Amino acid sequence: MPLDLVVGAQWGDEGKGRIVDRLAASADLVARWGGGDNAGHSVTVGDQVHRLHLIPSGILHPHTVCLLGAGMVIHPGRLVEEICQLQAAGVDVSPARLKLSAAAHVITPAHLALDAAQEAGRGAGQLGTTRRGIGPAYTDKAARRGLRAGAMRSPEEFSRQVTDSVSGAAAASPVDHASLLPEARAAGQEYAQHAEFLLPYLADTGRLVDEALSQGKLVLGEGAQGTLLDLDHGTYPYVTSSCTTTAGALAGLGIGAQHLRQVIGVVKCFQTRVGAGPFPTELHGDLADRLRGSGDRPWDEFGTTTGRPRRIGWLDAVLLRYAHRINGFTALALTKLDILSGLDPLCLCSEYRRQAGDEAAPEVSDLERASPVYLALPGWQSDLQPARAWEELPAPARDFVLEVERQAGVPIRLISVGPERQQLVERDPR
Ligand code: GDP
Ligand code: IMO
Ligand code: MG
Per-residue confidence of the chain (430 residues) as pLDDT tens digits? Predict the structure, then answer.
Protein backbone atom coordinates (compact mmCIF):
# COMPACT_ATOMS: atom_id res chain seq x y z
CA MET A 1 0.00 0.00 0.00
CA PRO A 2 -0.68 2.54 -1.38
CA LEU A 3 -1.42 3.21 -5.02
CA ASP A 4 -2.08 6.80 -6.13
CA LEU A 5 -3.30 7.56 -9.63
CA VAL A 6 -3.04 10.66 -11.78
CA VAL A 7 -5.87 10.67 -14.33
CA GLY A 8 -6.67 13.19 -17.07
CA ALA A 9 -10.16 14.60 -16.49
CA GLN A 10 -10.68 16.08 -19.98
CA TRP A 11 -9.51 15.29 -23.53
CA GLY A 12 -5.83 14.90 -22.64
CA ASP A 13 -3.01 17.45 -22.27
CA GLU A 14 -4.30 18.61 -18.88
CA GLY A 15 -0.76 18.79 -17.49
CA LYS A 16 -0.57 15.23 -16.14
CA GLY A 17 3.18 14.99 -16.71
CA ARG A 18 3.75 18.15 -14.72
CA ILE A 19 1.62 16.93 -11.81
CA VAL A 20 3.23 13.47 -11.87
CA ASP A 21 6.62 15.18 -11.75
CA ARG A 22 5.54 16.87 -8.53
CA LEU A 23 4.04 13.77 -6.91
CA ALA A 24 6.89 11.49 -8.02
CA ALA A 25 9.16 13.30 -5.57
CA SER A 26 7.69 11.03 -2.87
CA ALA A 27 6.91 7.91 -4.98
CA ASP A 28 8.99 4.74 -5.29
CA LEU A 29 7.52 3.37 -8.51
CA VAL A 30 5.95 5.41 -11.30
CA ALA A 31 3.97 3.45 -13.86
CA ARG A 32 2.19 4.14 -17.14
CA TRP A 33 -0.76 1.79 -17.60
CA GLY A 34 -2.12 2.44 -21.07
CA GLY A 35 -1.74 4.08 -24.45
CA GLY A 36 1.54 4.47 -26.27
CA ASP A 37 3.50 7.26 -27.88
CA ASN A 38 0.27 9.04 -28.81
CA ALA A 39 0.82 10.64 -25.39
CA GLY A 40 3.05 13.67 -25.01
CA HIS A 41 3.88 14.78 -21.47
CA SER A 42 6.01 17.91 -21.10
CA VAL A 43 7.89 18.46 -17.90
CA THR A 44 9.98 21.56 -17.20
CA VAL A 45 12.91 21.14 -14.87
CA GLY A 46 15.07 24.24 -14.57
CA ASP A 47 15.77 25.41 -18.09
CA GLN A 48 15.16 21.97 -19.63
CA VAL A 49 11.81 20.98 -21.15
CA HIS A 50 11.51 17.19 -21.36
CA ARG A 51 8.92 15.82 -23.77
CA LEU A 52 8.02 12.28 -22.80
CA HIS A 53 5.85 9.99 -24.90
CA LEU A 54 6.30 6.52 -23.43
CA ILE A 55 8.53 6.76 -20.38
CA PRO A 56 6.78 7.93 -17.19
CA SER A 57 7.52 11.50 -16.15
CA GLY A 58 8.74 10.10 -12.82
CA ILE A 59 12.03 9.14 -14.51
CA LEU A 60 13.24 12.72 -13.95
CA HIS A 61 13.56 12.01 -10.21
CA PRO A 62 16.72 9.92 -9.76
CA HIS A 63 15.32 7.76 -6.94
CA THR A 64 12.35 6.26 -8.83
CA VAL A 65 11.88 3.04 -10.75
CA CYS A 66 9.56 3.48 -13.76
CA LEU A 67 7.34 0.90 -15.41
CA LEU A 68 5.65 0.56 -18.78
CA GLY A 69 2.63 -1.57 -17.89
CA ALA A 70 0.89 -4.45 -19.64
CA GLY A 71 -1.93 -2.24 -20.91
CA MET A 72 0.42 -0.20 -23.08
CA VAL A 73 1.26 -0.46 -26.77
CA ILE A 74 4.94 0.11 -27.48
CA HIS A 75 6.74 1.19 -30.61
CA PRO A 76 10.20 -0.28 -29.89
CA GLY A 77 12.08 2.22 -32.09
CA ARG A 78 10.42 5.18 -30.40
CA LEU A 79 11.16 3.73 -26.97
CA VAL A 80 14.85 3.26 -27.84
CA GLU A 81 14.92 6.83 -29.16
CA GLU A 82 13.34 8.22 -25.99
CA ILE A 83 15.75 6.30 -23.75
CA CYS A 84 18.71 7.66 -25.74
CA GLN A 85 17.34 11.22 -25.72
CA LEU A 86 16.88 11.19 -21.96
CA GLN A 87 20.31 9.69 -21.44
CA ALA A 88 21.82 12.42 -23.62
CA ALA A 89 20.08 14.94 -21.34
CA GLY A 90 21.83 13.36 -18.35
CA VAL A 91 18.91 11.24 -17.06
CA ASP A 92 19.76 7.69 -15.95
CA VAL A 93 17.49 5.35 -17.92
CA SER A 94 19.33 2.12 -17.23
CA PRO A 95 17.43 -1.20 -17.02
CA ALA A 96 17.63 -0.87 -13.23
CA ARG A 97 15.35 2.19 -13.48
CA LEU A 98 13.04 1.35 -16.38
CA LYS A 99 11.02 -1.86 -16.74
CA LEU A 100 8.99 -2.83 -19.79
CA SER A 101 6.13 -5.28 -19.30
CA ALA A 102 6.59 -8.44 -21.35
CA ALA A 103 2.81 -8.39 -21.79
CA ALA A 104 2.66 -4.95 -23.41
CA HIS A 105 1.83 -5.07 -27.11
CA VAL A 106 4.19 -4.08 -29.90
CA ILE A 107 3.37 -1.50 -32.58
CA THR A 108 4.70 -2.66 -35.95
CA PRO A 109 5.12 -0.68 -39.18
CA ALA A 110 1.94 -2.43 -40.33
CA HIS A 111 0.00 -0.68 -37.55
CA LEU A 112 1.41 2.70 -38.53
CA ALA A 113 0.51 2.16 -42.19
CA LEU A 114 -2.98 0.96 -41.26
CA ASP A 115 -3.62 3.95 -38.98
CA ALA A 116 -2.76 6.32 -41.84
CA ALA A 117 -4.77 4.33 -44.40
CA GLN A 118 -7.83 4.10 -42.14
CA GLU A 119 -7.73 7.84 -41.45
CA ALA A 120 -7.42 8.59 -45.18
CA GLY A 121 -10.36 6.22 -45.82
CA ARG A 122 -12.56 8.16 -43.38
CA GLY A 123 -12.32 11.24 -45.60
CA ALA A 124 -14.18 14.15 -44.03
CA GLY A 125 -15.05 11.93 -41.05
CA GLN A 126 -11.45 11.59 -39.87
CA LEU A 127 -10.96 11.01 -36.15
CA GLY A 128 -7.74 13.01 -36.18
CA THR A 129 -5.63 10.24 -34.66
CA THR A 130 -1.97 10.82 -33.85
CA ARG A 131 -1.11 8.25 -36.57
CA ARG A 132 1.07 6.35 -34.14
CA GLY A 133 -0.58 3.00 -34.95
CA ILE A 134 -2.46 2.94 -31.64
CA GLY A 135 -5.89 1.82 -32.89
CA PRO A 136 -4.58 -0.98 -35.15
CA ALA A 137 -2.24 -2.28 -32.41
CA TYR A 138 -5.11 -2.50 -29.89
CA THR A 139 -7.28 -4.07 -32.60
CA ASP A 140 -4.73 -6.89 -33.03
CA LYS A 141 -4.54 -7.27 -29.25
CA ALA A 142 -8.31 -7.65 -28.97
CA ALA A 143 -8.34 -10.08 -31.91
CA ARG A 144 -5.68 -12.14 -30.09
CA ARG A 145 -3.18 -11.97 -32.90
CA GLY A 146 -0.95 -9.20 -31.47
CA LEU A 147 2.77 -9.35 -30.85
CA ARG A 148 3.82 -8.89 -27.22
CA ALA A 149 7.01 -7.27 -25.95
CA GLY A 150 8.07 -10.60 -24.39
CA ALA A 151 8.62 -11.88 -27.95
CA MET A 152 11.73 -9.67 -28.04
CA ARG A 153 13.44 -12.29 -25.86
CA SER A 154 14.16 -14.19 -29.11
CA PRO A 155 15.21 -11.38 -31.46
CA GLU A 156 15.41 -13.67 -34.53
CA GLU A 157 11.94 -15.10 -34.07
CA PHE A 158 10.70 -11.58 -33.26
CA SER A 159 12.23 -10.31 -36.52
CA ARG A 160 10.39 -13.01 -38.46
CA GLN A 161 7.11 -12.17 -36.72
CA VAL A 162 7.47 -8.46 -37.55
CA THR A 163 8.29 -9.28 -41.19
CA ASP A 164 5.22 -11.55 -41.36
CA SER A 165 3.05 -8.87 -39.79
CA VAL A 166 4.18 -6.26 -42.33
CA SER A 167 3.95 -8.54 -45.35
CA GLY A 168 0.56 -9.81 -44.13
CA ALA A 169 -0.75 -6.25 -43.94
CA ALA A 170 0.79 -5.49 -47.34
CA ALA A 171 -0.94 -8.54 -48.83
CA ALA A 172 -4.26 -7.25 -47.55
CA SER A 173 -3.71 -3.81 -49.07
CA PRO A 174 -4.48 -2.75 -52.61
CA VAL A 175 -0.82 -1.74 -53.08
CA ASP A 176 1.53 -4.02 -55.05
CA HIS A 177 2.43 -6.71 -52.51
CA ALA A 178 5.73 -7.86 -54.00
CA SER A 179 7.19 -4.36 -53.96
CA LEU A 180 6.55 -4.13 -50.21
CA LEU A 181 8.34 -7.35 -49.27
CA PRO A 182 11.88 -5.88 -49.07
CA GLU A 183 10.44 -3.22 -46.79
CA ALA A 184 8.92 -5.91 -44.60
CA ARG A 185 12.27 -7.70 -44.31
CA ALA A 186 14.04 -4.41 -43.47
CA ALA A 187 11.45 -3.72 -40.76
CA GLY A 188 12.09 -7.18 -39.30
CA GLN A 189 15.83 -6.51 -39.12
CA GLU A 190 15.32 -3.09 -37.59
CA TYR A 191 12.99 -4.51 -34.93
CA ALA A 192 15.53 -7.26 -34.12
CA GLN A 193 18.08 -4.54 -33.32
CA HIS A 194 15.59 -2.76 -31.07
CA ALA A 195 14.86 -6.09 -29.38
CA GLU A 196 18.57 -6.58 -28.57
CA PHE A 197 18.62 -3.11 -27.01
CA LEU A 198 15.36 -3.50 -25.05
CA LEU A 199 15.90 -7.08 -23.83
CA PRO A 200 17.41 -6.06 -20.46
CA TYR A 201 14.43 -3.78 -19.82
CA LEU A 202 11.84 -6.59 -20.07
CA ALA A 203 10.18 -7.54 -16.79
CA ASP A 204 7.08 -8.93 -15.13
CA THR A 205 5.89 -5.45 -14.13
CA GLY A 206 2.73 -6.75 -12.42
CA ARG A 207 4.89 -8.67 -9.96
CA LEU A 208 7.11 -5.63 -9.38
CA VAL A 209 4.10 -3.48 -8.55
CA ASP A 210 2.70 -6.14 -6.24
CA GLU A 211 6.04 -6.51 -4.42
CA ALA A 212 6.40 -2.75 -4.04
CA LEU A 213 2.88 -2.42 -2.63
CA SER A 214 3.37 -5.28 -0.19
CA GLN A 215 6.57 -3.61 1.05
CA GLY A 216 4.56 -0.46 1.79
CA LYS A 217 6.11 1.51 -1.07
CA LEU A 218 4.24 4.27 -2.89
CA VAL A 219 3.26 3.42 -6.46
CA LEU A 220 2.15 6.32 -8.63
CA GLY A 221 0.15 5.56 -11.77
CA GLU A 222 0.61 8.06 -14.60
CA GLY A 223 -2.42 8.32 -16.81
CA ALA A 224 -2.19 9.09 -20.49
CA GLN A 225 -4.86 10.77 -22.61
CA GLY A 226 -7.96 11.74 -20.64
CA THR A 227 -11.32 10.43 -19.43
CA LEU A 228 -13.22 11.84 -22.42
CA LEU A 229 -10.91 9.90 -24.78
CA ASP A 230 -11.61 6.59 -23.00
CA LEU A 231 -12.65 3.82 -25.39
CA ASP A 232 -15.79 2.95 -23.41
CA HIS A 233 -16.72 6.15 -21.61
CA GLY A 234 -15.32 8.87 -23.85
CA THR A 235 -16.94 10.65 -26.78
CA TYR A 236 -16.99 7.52 -28.96
CA PRO A 237 -15.95 7.14 -31.77
CA TYR A 238 -13.77 10.24 -31.25
CA VAL A 239 -11.67 8.48 -28.64
CA THR A 240 -8.43 6.57 -28.36
CA SER A 241 -8.40 2.77 -28.25
CA SER A 242 -7.39 2.27 -24.62
CA CYS A 243 -8.86 2.59 -21.16
CA THR A 244 -7.71 5.94 -19.80
CA THR A 245 -9.59 5.90 -16.49
CA THR A 246 -9.17 4.56 -12.93
CA ALA A 247 -10.51 1.16 -13.97
CA GLY A 248 -7.98 1.06 -16.80
CA ALA A 249 -5.14 1.67 -14.35
CA LEU A 250 -6.01 -1.42 -12.34
CA ALA A 251 -6.40 -3.54 -15.46
CA GLY A 252 -3.34 -2.14 -17.22
CA LEU A 253 -1.07 -2.57 -14.22
CA GLY A 254 -2.60 -5.86 -13.04
CA ILE A 255 -3.46 -4.97 -9.45
CA GLY A 256 -6.49 -5.08 -7.17
CA ALA A 257 -8.59 -2.14 -6.06
CA GLN A 258 -7.72 -2.63 -2.37
CA HIS A 259 -4.43 -0.79 -2.91
CA LEU A 260 -6.00 2.37 -4.23
CA ARG A 261 -5.55 5.42 -1.97
CA GLN A 262 -5.94 8.52 -4.11
CA VAL A 263 -7.22 9.31 -7.58
CA ILE A 264 -6.03 12.76 -8.57
CA GLY A 265 -7.93 14.18 -11.50
CA VAL A 266 -5.94 16.69 -13.52
CA VAL A 267 -8.08 19.51 -14.91
CA LYS A 268 -6.92 22.39 -17.04
CA CYS A 269 -8.84 25.56 -16.17
CA PHE A 270 -10.07 25.74 -19.74
CA GLN A 271 -10.91 22.93 -22.14
CA THR A 272 -8.76 21.71 -25.06
CA ARG A 273 -9.06 18.93 -27.57
CA VAL A 274 -6.85 17.71 -30.46
CA GLY A 275 -8.62 15.82 -33.18
CA ALA A 276 -12.26 15.65 -34.12
CA GLY A 277 -15.36 15.17 -31.97
CA PRO A 278 -18.01 17.13 -30.07
CA PHE A 279 -16.90 20.09 -27.94
CA PRO A 280 -19.85 22.05 -26.47
CA THR A 281 -17.85 24.98 -25.05
CA GLU A 282 -15.51 25.40 -28.05
CA LEU A 283 -14.37 28.96 -28.79
CA HIS A 284 -13.19 30.44 -32.07
CA GLY A 285 -11.52 33.71 -33.01
CA ASP A 286 -9.54 36.07 -30.79
CA LEU A 287 -10.45 34.51 -27.45
CA ALA A 288 -9.42 31.04 -28.61
CA ASP A 289 -6.20 32.46 -30.07
CA ARG A 290 -5.47 34.25 -26.80
CA LEU A 291 -5.94 31.07 -24.71
CA ARG A 292 -4.03 28.90 -27.21
CA GLY A 293 -1.03 31.22 -27.44
CA SER A 294 1.04 31.80 -30.54
CA GLY A 295 3.20 28.72 -30.17
CA ASP A 296 6.22 30.73 -29.01
CA ARG A 297 6.04 29.52 -25.41
CA PRO A 298 6.60 25.81 -24.67
CA TRP A 299 3.24 25.56 -22.89
CA ASP A 300 1.16 27.10 -25.70
CA GLU A 301 -1.63 24.83 -26.88
CA PHE A 302 0.02 22.94 -29.72
CA GLY A 303 0.23 19.13 -29.54
CA THR A 304 3.40 17.74 -27.93
CA THR A 305 3.20 14.69 -30.18
CA THR A 306 1.87 16.09 -33.45
CA GLY A 307 2.38 19.88 -33.21
CA ARG A 308 -1.28 20.40 -34.20
CA PRO A 309 -3.02 23.50 -32.74
CA ARG A 310 -5.37 22.34 -30.00
CA ARG A 311 -9.04 23.29 -30.13
CA ILE A 312 -9.92 25.59 -27.22
CA GLY A 313 -13.00 26.26 -25.08
CA TRP A 314 -14.20 27.33 -21.65
CA LEU A 315 -14.04 24.85 -18.80
CA ASP A 316 -17.02 22.49 -18.89
CA ALA A 317 -18.18 21.49 -15.38
CA VAL A 318 -20.80 19.07 -16.77
CA LEU A 319 -17.96 17.03 -18.29
CA LEU A 320 -15.90 17.43 -15.13
CA ARG A 321 -18.69 15.97 -12.99
CA TYR A 322 -18.99 13.15 -15.52
CA ALA A 323 -15.22 12.48 -15.26
CA HIS A 324 -15.59 12.33 -11.46
CA ARG A 325 -18.43 9.83 -11.83
CA ILE A 326 -16.25 7.57 -13.99
CA ASN A 327 -13.04 7.83 -11.96
CA GLY A 328 -14.00 8.57 -8.37
CA PHE A 329 -11.56 11.44 -7.89
CA THR A 330 -10.40 12.01 -4.33
CA ALA A 331 -8.82 15.34 -5.27
CA LEU A 332 -8.23 17.58 -8.26
CA ALA A 333 -5.13 19.33 -9.55
CA LEU A 334 -6.12 22.46 -11.47
CA THR A 335 -3.54 23.54 -14.05
CA LYS A 336 -2.73 26.63 -16.09
CA LEU A 337 -4.50 29.12 -13.84
CA ASP A 338 -1.83 31.66 -14.86
CA ILE A 339 -3.12 31.58 -18.44
CA LEU A 340 -6.44 33.15 -17.37
CA SER A 341 -4.74 36.34 -16.08
CA GLY A 342 -5.96 39.39 -17.98
CA LEU A 343 -9.26 37.87 -19.16
CA ASP A 344 -12.45 39.38 -17.74
CA PRO A 345 -15.04 37.98 -17.39
CA LEU A 346 -14.17 34.28 -17.22
CA CYS A 347 -16.78 31.76 -18.22
CA LEU A 348 -17.49 28.37 -16.72
CA CYS A 349 -20.12 26.03 -18.18
CA SER A 350 -22.27 24.89 -15.26
CA GLU A 351 -24.96 22.98 -17.18
CA TYR A 352 -26.42 22.37 -20.63
CA ARG A 353 -29.56 24.11 -21.75
CA ARG A 354 -32.74 22.08 -21.97
CA GLN A 355 -33.92 22.07 -25.60
CA ALA A 356 -37.51 23.03 -26.46
CA GLY A 357 -39.74 19.98 -26.18
CA ASP A 358 -37.14 17.92 -24.25
CA GLU A 359 -37.68 16.91 -20.63
CA ALA A 360 -34.02 17.12 -19.65
CA ALA A 361 -30.79 18.69 -20.87
CA PRO A 362 -28.69 16.56 -23.26
CA GLU A 363 -26.58 13.81 -21.68
CA VAL A 364 -22.84 13.43 -22.15
CA SER A 365 -23.65 10.67 -24.64
CA ASP A 366 -25.42 13.28 -26.73
CA LEU A 367 -22.93 16.16 -26.72
CA GLU A 368 -23.61 17.20 -30.30
CA ARG A 369 -26.88 18.69 -29.02
CA ALA A 370 -25.44 20.28 -25.89
CA SER A 371 -25.66 24.04 -25.60
CA PRO A 372 -23.73 25.42 -22.61
CA VAL A 373 -25.10 27.66 -19.88
CA TYR A 374 -22.26 29.83 -18.56
CA LEU A 375 -21.50 31.41 -15.22
CA ALA A 376 -19.58 34.65 -15.74
CA LEU A 377 -16.89 35.11 -13.09
CA PRO A 378 -14.69 38.17 -12.49
CA GLY A 379 -11.15 37.91 -13.82
CA TRP A 380 -7.88 39.31 -12.47
CA GLN A 381 -4.96 41.14 -14.05
CA SER A 382 -1.84 40.13 -12.13
CA ASP A 383 0.65 37.46 -13.18
CA LEU A 384 0.08 34.33 -11.07
CA GLN A 385 3.35 32.56 -11.84
CA PRO A 386 5.14 33.93 -8.74
CA ALA A 387 2.37 32.71 -6.36
CA ARG A 388 3.33 29.81 -4.05
CA ALA A 389 0.58 30.00 -1.43
CA TRP A 390 -3.22 30.21 -1.52
CA GLU A 391 -3.15 33.63 0.13
CA GLU A 392 -0.85 34.93 -2.61
CA LEU A 393 -3.51 34.38 -5.27
CA PRO A 394 -5.73 37.42 -5.97
CA ALA A 395 -9.27 37.11 -4.57
CA PRO A 396 -10.96 36.59 -8.01
CA ALA A 397 -8.50 33.74 -8.76
CA ARG A 398 -9.33 32.09 -5.43
CA ASP A 399 -13.04 32.54 -6.15
CA PHE A 400 -12.59 30.94 -9.57
CA VAL A 401 -10.90 27.91 -7.97
CA LEU A 402 -13.62 27.67 -5.32
CA GLU A 403 -16.34 27.78 -7.99
CA VAL A 404 -14.66 24.98 -9.99
CA GLU A 405 -14.41 22.98 -6.77
CA ARG A 406 -18.08 23.59 -5.98
CA GLN A 407 -19.16 22.65 -9.51
CA ALA A 408 -17.03 19.49 -9.55
CA GLY A 409 -17.88 18.37 -6.03
CA VAL A 410 -14.21 17.39 -5.49
CA PRO A 411 -11.57 19.24 -3.42
CA ILE A 412 -8.89 21.04 -5.40
CA ARG A 413 -5.62 20.34 -3.61
CA LEU A 414 -3.06 21.46 -6.19
CA ILE A 415 -3.14 24.60 -8.29
CA SER A 416 -0.56 24.94 -11.01
CA VAL A 417 0.42 28.49 -11.93
CA GLY A 418 3.27 27.75 -14.34
CA PRO A 419 5.09 24.86 -15.97
CA GLU A 420 8.04 24.78 -13.58
CA ARG A 421 8.36 22.46 -10.61
CA GLN A 422 7.95 25.13 -7.97
CA GLN A 423 5.14 27.02 -9.74
CA LEU A 424 2.50 25.22 -7.74
CA VAL A 425 0.16 26.15 -4.90
CA GLU A 426 -0.77 23.37 -2.47
CA ARG A 427 -3.98 23.78 -0.60
CA ASP A 428 -5.77 21.97 2.19
CA PRO A 429 -9.45 22.65 1.43
CA ARG A 430 -10.71 21.69 4.91
P1 GDP B 1 -0.13 16.13 -20.43
O2 GDP B 1 -0.22 15.41 -21.72
O3 GDP B 1 -1.39 16.04 -19.63
O4 GDP B 1 1.07 15.77 -19.61
O5 GDP B 1 0.03 17.69 -20.80
P6 GDP B 1 1.01 18.29 -21.94
O7 GDP B 1 2.41 18.19 -21.44
O8 GDP B 1 0.71 17.71 -23.26
O9 GDP B 1 0.52 19.79 -22.00
C10 GDP B 1 0.59 20.64 -20.89
C11 GDP B 1 1.54 21.82 -21.21
O12 GDP B 1 1.30 22.87 -20.30
C13 GDP B 1 3.01 21.50 -21.03
O14 GDP B 1 3.77 22.28 -21.93
C15 GDP B 1 3.29 21.89 -19.60
O16 GDP B 1 4.65 22.23 -19.36
C17 GDP B 1 2.44 23.11 -19.48
N18 GDP B 1 1.90 23.39 -18.16
C19 GDP B 1 1.44 22.53 -17.21
N20 GDP B 1 0.91 23.19 -16.16
C21 GDP B 1 1.05 24.51 -16.45
C22 GDP B 1 0.67 25.72 -15.78
O23 GDP B 1 0.09 25.71 -14.70
N24 GDP B 1 0.93 26.90 -16.42
C25 GDP B 1 1.56 26.95 -17.63
N26 GDP B 1 1.78 28.14 -18.17
N27 GDP B 1 1.93 25.84 -18.29
C28 GDP B 1 1.67 24.64 -17.70
P1 IMO C 1 -1.71 12.95 -23.52
O2 IMO C 1 -1.28 11.77 -22.68
C3 IMO C 1 -4.50 14.67 -26.37
C4 IMO C 1 -6.35 11.93 -29.26
C5 IMO C 1 -5.97 12.17 -30.71
C6 IMO C 1 -7.27 11.77 -31.39
C7 IMO C 1 -7.73 10.58 -30.54
C8 IMO C 1 -7.35 9.22 -31.14
O9 IMO C 1 -0.60 13.80 -23.99
O10 IMO C 1 -2.80 13.71 -22.83
P11 IMO C 1 -5.04 7.90 -31.28
O12 IMO C 1 -3.76 8.24 -31.97
O13 IMO C 1 -4.88 7.69 -29.81
O14 IMO C 1 -5.77 6.77 -31.96
O15 IMO C 1 -5.98 9.21 -31.50
O16 IMO C 1 -7.09 10.72 -29.29
N17 IMO C 1 -5.19 11.74 -28.34
C18 IMO C 1 -4.76 12.69 -27.50
N19 IMO C 1 -5.15 13.97 -27.34
N20 IMO C 1 -3.55 14.14 -25.58
C21 IMO C 1 -3.18 12.85 -25.71
O22 IMO C 1 -2.31 12.27 -24.85
C23 IMO C 1 -3.75 12.07 -26.73
N24 IMO C 1 -3.61 10.79 -27.14
C25 IMO C 1 -4.50 10.60 -28.12
O26 IMO C 1 -5.66 13.53 -30.93
O27 IMO C 1 -8.23 12.77 -31.24
MG1 MG D 1 -0.01 15.77 -23.79
Answer: 699 999 999 999 999 999 999 999 999 999 999 999 999 999 999 999 999 999 999 999 999 999 999 999 999 999 999 999 999 999 999 999 999 999 999 999 999 999 999 999 999 999 999 999 999 999 999 999 999 999 999 999 999 999 998 888 766 665 555 566 677 888 899 999 999 999 999 999 999 999 999 999 999 999 999 999 999 999 999 999 999 999 999 999 999 999 999 999 999 999 999 999 999 999 999 999 999 999 999 999 998 777 889 999 999 999 999 999 999 999 999 999 999 999 999 999 999 998 888 878 888 888 999 999 999 999 999 999 999 999 999 999 999 999 999 999 999 999 999 999 999 999 987 6
- Smallest CA-to-CA distance from 72 within 20, 37, 23, 109 is with 37
Q: Which residues line ligand 1 at a C-beta cut-off of 6 Å?
A: 8, 12-18, 40-42, 44, 298-299, 304, 335-336, 338-339, 416-419
Ligand 1 mean position, distance from CA 239 (Å):
21
Ligand closest to the CA atom of residue 291: 1
Residue 24 to residue 30: CA distance in whole angstroms = 7
Assess whether the C-beta atom of 40 lies below 6 angstroms from ligand 2.
Answer: yes
Nearest ligand to residue 387 Cα: 1
Is residue 128 classed as helix, strand or coil in its secondary structure? coil
Task: Judge if pTM exceeds 0.90.
Answer: yes
Decide: 207 and 67 in contact? Cβ < 8 Å.
no
Spacing, Cα 236 to ligand 2 middle (Å): 13
246-267 burial, b at 16+ Cβ within 10 Å, e below that, comes to bbbbbbbbbbeeebbeebbbbb
Q: Which atom of ligand 1 is nearest to the CA of 51?
A: 7
Cα separation, 313 vs 288, whole angstroms: 7
> What spacing in Å lies between the alpha carbon of 12 and ligand 2's midpoint?
7
Q: Which residues are identified as catalytic? A: 13, 41
